DNA sequence: TAGTATGATTGGCA
DNA sequence: TGCCAATCATACTA
């Protein structure tokens, strides 16, 4: 009786087992899991060790402005060590899960084997149980991967966000940029080539040069009184180097492509004395330009002899309507803040 | 430590 | 795509 009953049960099992199996197998690969896997691989957390995220460290170097900062290596090693920590935790947790999964699977298999003595347990059913267990554990694994990804993202945002590790440019770099700016005050829009050259000279990236000029233009316009003094300082510097050597001490990169008589700026006659200032091409100032510099730097203080009382006249400078009259200093010798000027950003 | 300076980011515009 | 303007976040300074 018992063997007959057993065989009937086996038949029923076989049928139901097959129907369950056919309904549950061949599940598609979870795209979310794939994304997580790819990200962990890319970050160097999953997969073979690849220098603790050297790619990300390289990205950090690029983001931090050409890697001129001496702190960079320290920061990157810090980043790498933290990434290695995450990697270590991820792998140890993964190992634990796998171990637990194996243990649980063995336990269930043993139970089923024991049960197979009293009820029919087909090998296919055992396989099904194993796959169920694996699915459950892979769900847990996915959570682990997700939290690991989050940790990596936080780490990245902390270390790679350039804003967080802002460094002031070197004095020399600022001087180079300022010299260019004030010597091209009529058209402070360096061309791509000029930007590249400035970037090279300053040890910063082209986008940093663009940022610098963007900030400078706005801040100059907002508070021309303050910058007038700076402008004069650079005027004297450049003038001295001109009268001494015929070339600027820090030769300016190629002037902007739009600069010059054909540029989009309407230039005043008495204003921007560096108008048409030579670039690296080896051009030199005209005698009258040098002479006018000498006059403007006379004993009475530079700029005193100028009709408008200013060496730089930002007025009439117009770039697409933006670089224009908004900036009009009252005097060079007694710089005052322009109308509506602010000390810093309006936000500050 | 508050105020200021400054490099970077973001959103809108032409 | 480059620029402007506003803003953020950090560095610097008195």
From TrEMBL:
Residues 162-224 bind DNA. GO terms for cellular component: nucleus. Residues 1-161 form the PBC domain. PROSITE patterns: HOMEOBOX_1 (PS00027), HOMEOBOX_2 (PS50071), PBC (PS51978). It is found in: Nucleus. InterPro entries: HD (IPR001356), Homeobox_CS (IPR017970), Homeodomain-like_sf (IPR009057), KN_HD (IPR008422), PBX_PBC_dom (IPR005542), TALE_homeobox (IPR050224). Keywords: DNA-binding, Homeobox, Nucleus, Transcription, Transcription regulation. Residues 244-265, 296-348 are annotated as: Disordered. It comes from the Eukaryota. Residues 298-310 have a biased composition (Gly residues). Belongs to the TALE/PBX homeobox family. PANTHER family: HOMEOBOX PROTEIN TRANSCRIPTION FACTORS. This is PBX homeobox 2. It comes from Cercocebus atys.
């Amino acid at each position: 009786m018992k063997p007959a009953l057993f065989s009937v049960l086996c038949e029923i099992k076989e049928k139901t087992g097959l129907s369950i199996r056919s309904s549950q197998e061949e599940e598609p690969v979870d795209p979310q899991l794939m994304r997580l896997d790819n990200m962990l691989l890319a970050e160097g957390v999953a997969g073979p060790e690849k220098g603790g995220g050297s790619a990300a460290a390289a990205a950090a170097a690029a983001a931090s402005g050409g890697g001129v900062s001496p702190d960079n290596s320290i920061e990157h090693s810090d980043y790498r060590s933290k990434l290695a920590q995450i990697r270590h935790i991820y792998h140890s947790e993964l190992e634990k899960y796998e171990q637990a999964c194996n243990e649980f699977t063995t336990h269930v298999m043993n139970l089923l084997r024991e049960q197979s003595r009293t009820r029919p347990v087909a090998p296919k059913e055992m396989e099904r149980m194993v796959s169920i267990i694996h699915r459950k554990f892979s769900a847990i694994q996915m959570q682990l991967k997700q939290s690991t990804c989050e940790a990596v993202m936080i780490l990245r945002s902390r270390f790679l966000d350039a804003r967080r590790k802002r460094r002031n440019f070197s004095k020399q770099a600022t001087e180079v940029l300022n010299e260019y700016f004030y010597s091209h005050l009529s058209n402070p829009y360096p061309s791509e080539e000029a930007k590249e050259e400035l970037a090279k000279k300053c040890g910063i990236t082209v986008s940093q040069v663009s940022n610098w000029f963007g900030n400078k233009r706005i801040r100059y316009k907002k508070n021309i009184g303050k910058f007038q003094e700076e402008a004069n300082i650079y005027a004297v510097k450049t003038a001295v180097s001109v009268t001494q050597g015929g070339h600027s001490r820090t030769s300016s990169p190629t002037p902007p492509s739009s600069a010059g008589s054909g540029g989009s700026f309407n230039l005043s006659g008495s204003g921007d004395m560096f108008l048409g200032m030579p670039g690296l091409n080896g051009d030199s100032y005209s005698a009258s330009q040098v002479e006018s510099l000498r006059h403007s730097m006379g004993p009475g203080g530079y700029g005193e002899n100028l009709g408008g009382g200013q060496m730089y006249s930002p007025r009439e400078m117009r770039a697409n309507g933006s670089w224009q009259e908004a900036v009009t200093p009252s005097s060079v010798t007694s710089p005052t803040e322009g109308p509506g000027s602010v000390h810093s950003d309006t936000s500050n």
